[in-house]
Amino acid sequence: MKKYQIFIDGQAGTTGLQIRQRLASHPQIEVVTIDHDKRRDQDAKRELMSSVDVTVLCLPDDAARETATQARAAGCRVLDASSAHRTADGWVFGLAELARGQREAIASASAVSNPGCYATGAILLLRPLIAAGLLSADRDLSINAVSGYTGGGTKMVERYQQDNAPVYAAYGLGFDHKHIPEIQHWSGLQARPIFQPAVGSYDQGMLVMIPLQGSNGAALQQALSDYYQGEQFVQVLPYNEIPADSAPFVTPHGLNGSNRAELQVYGSASGQQALLVAKLDNLGKGASGAAVQNLNIMLGLEEGLCTQIV
Ligand SMILES: NC(=O)C1=CN([C@@H]2O[C@H](COP(=O)(O)OP(=O)(O)OC[C@H]3O[C@@H](n4cnc5c(N)ncnc54)[C@H](OP(=O)(O)O)[C@@H]3O)[C@@H](O)[C@H]2O)C=CC1
Ligand SMILES: CC(=O)N[C@@H](CCC(=O)OP(=O)(O)O)C(=O)O
């Protein structure tokens, strides 16, 4: 059986580690590593990138831009987990469930950009509804979200491992969170939304929530259900269903380690108020699970292989 080789630049970070954990049992992908003290040596990296099938970038944005430029100049295939290239020309957005033809585009791409965790939830909810004309592209929206602290990388993990970290903290108060451009670009939303994220004192799991005034929840749920019919990693729950493991609450928990996103729609009896909810693991479908899914697609392998930590 053919084995493909990949190199993870940033292999010791939060996202890189979780990709390695998933790939440890992959039957057709092996990870080639770089000496720790050479991890910032561009010559050593270029040599390694040229020898592997795909390089995965799990770096801060600036470092990802620099390494991606080198990789592309050398003709190497790249999957970038950072937010540097999510709306950039020449890059394919790595959300296979985005639209018909997206899987094929990922499969043949030389450069794929892995979506942001919050953006994954928001785009999965909004794109089908805007495309179907059930939500107007120029509608003013608020998107509220909460994530586990691993979403902030090693620095935030260290902070939360101390005693005085806040139980719940709202941020993004400059109204300029880095996921807003990709949410607008890939959902088709023309009006700039208010995106208001928060971080909680738990490690993994997120909710992305979009309240809608004047919308009928049942119609929205049906449209989402039809759109994602047959998808293995995106499921739409029945209308107004609260998952039994958390009832009467809707929590960010329950999907950790998986590469799944669950979409939920709640609506009022009047048919005039609704809430869209996406639940996912910020390190699963929001980062490392999606990265392994994209690698499988890029290499022509079964899409679900080793995307989950069991
Ligand atoms: N955490 C999450 O939920 C998600 C993160 N992402 C994105 O993935 C990327 C990585 O994030 P995350 O794993 O959280 O970050 P971390 O801070 O956990 O890890 C980043 C890693 O990159 C290494 N690094 C930094 N600069 C360089 C460089 N110039 N060359 C080589 N290695 C370098 C760091 O090692 P050292 O400092 O020791 O050199 C560290 O191991 C980011 O762009 C982030 O935005 C995407 C989706 C979700
Ligand atoms: C809790 C937390 O801090 N989360 C991160 C987003 C994590 C993520 O998806 O980051 P990328 O866009 O880099 O992929 C943040 O809000 O900046």
Automatic annotation (TrEMBL):
Annotated ranges, domain Semialdehyde dehydrogenase NAD-binding: 5-106
Predominant cellular place of this UniProt entry's protein: cytoplasm
Say if the entry is tagged with keyword Oxidoreductase.
Answer: yes
Q: Which InterPro entries match?
A: AGPR, AGPR_AS, AGPR_dimerisation_dom, AGPR_type-2, NAD(P)-bd_dom_sf, Semialdehyde_DH_NAD-bd
- Pathway(s) this gene product operates in, as recorded in its UniProt entry: Amino-acid biosynthesis; L-arginine biosynthesis; N(2)-acetyl-L-ornithine from L-glutamate: step 3/4
What sort of enzyme, by top EC class, is this? oxidoreductase
| Signal sequence segment | none
Q: Which CDD domains match?
A: AGPR_2_C (cd23935)
Report the catalytic activity: N-acetyl-L-glutamate 5-semialdehyde + phosphate + NADP(+) = N-acetyl-L-glutamyl 5-phosphate + NADPH + H(+)
Question: Mind listing the UniProt keywords for this protein, alphabetically?
Answer: Amino-acid biosynthesis, Arginine biosynthesis, Cytoplasm, NADP, Oxidoreductase
Any idea where this protein resides? Cytoplasm
**What domain of life?**
Bacteria
EC code: 1.2.1.38
What are the catalytic residues? 117
NADP as UniProt keyword: yes
Q: What does this protein do?
A: Catalyzes the NADPH-dependent reduction of N-acetyl-5-glutamyl phosphate to yield N-acetyl-L-glutamate 5-semialdehyde.
Q: Which family does it belong to?
A: Belongs to the NAGSA dehydrogenase family. Type 2 subfamily.
| PANTHER family recorded | N-ACETYL-GAMMA-GLUTAMYL-PHOSPHATE REDUCTASE, CHLOROPLASTIC-RELATED, N-ACETYL-GAMMA-GLUTAMYL-PHOSPHATE REDUCTASE, CHLOROPLASTIC-RELATED-RELATED
Q: Which NCBIfam families match?
A: argC_other
* UniProt protein name: N-acetyl-gamma-glutamyl-phosphate reductase
- What species was this sequence derived from? Phytopseudomonas dryadis
Print the organism lineage.
Answer: Bacteria, Pseudomonadati, Pseudomonadota, Gammaproteobacteria, Pseudomonadales
Gene name? argC
